[in-house]
Write a structure and sequence with these properties.
alpha+beta, 9 strands
């Protein structure tokens, strides 16, 4: 008689476990339904008066998976610039520093047709001073391929954090800033695309 009771207990346990497994499948499907992907394009343009000098586009793909309310993405682009330094004993040395652009992006659904986009942006560059053949010191922006600056460079940096609402496929100009050294105007524009 013990064997039939044991079989009945095992059968009841199997029947109770089956609905719980069936309930897990819809919740897994719901988690997969919450997956969303976005593409954020950030364009940094520099102007000298009305003349556009440069336009640098960056694309950051981001994805929202599961319970995190924000889709996140980061991008780091730059170069290591050699700087002439001197040691305590007076000997010359070369030290490298990072120069470039850093972008951090966070996206989440705002309302029915808009998305919250948060953009943290940092751009750094060097303004170098060089002596010309007449001994006069002149300044200009350092460019890749230039030799290490002979005089101490000036470090230029632009940092910002923006938060705004965007519709799918729409753009927004997030900033327009004037460089205090060159007088150039830098504009930052962002475009959000929802990937389906």
């Amino acid at each position: 008689m013990r064997i039939p009771k044991m079989i009945a207990v095992l059968a009841a346990t199997a029947l109770l476990a089956a609905p719980s497994r069936a309930q897990q499948k819809p919740s897994d499907a719901a988690a997969n339904d919450s997956v969303a992907a976005y593409r954020v394009q950030v364009v940094i343009s520099e102007y000298d008066g009305a003349t556009k000098i440069s336009s640098l586009p960056y694309t950051v793909p981001v994805a929202l998976i599961g319970g995190d309310p924000f889709a996140r993405g980061s991008l780091r682009v730059g170069i290591r610039v050699p700087l002439n330094t001197s040691t305590k004993t007076g000997e010359s040395a070369v030290q490298y520093t990072d120069v470039g652009t850093n972008l951090d992006v966070r996206v989440k659904r705002g309302d029915a047709d808009r998305y919250e986009l948060e953009l943290t942006f940092e751009r750094s560059s060097l303004y170098v001073r060089e002596q010309n053949k007449d001994g006069k010191v002149e300044g200009r922006a350092w460019a890749p391929g230039d030799p290490a600056p002979s005089l101490a460079p000036i470090w230029q940096q632009f940092r910002a954090n923006f938060g705004f609402l965007l519709r799918d496929g729409r753009s927004a100009e997030t900033a327009a800033v004037t460089d205090p050294i060159t007088g150039h105007v830098m504009k930052v524009e962002a475009v959000l695309a929802v990937l389906k």
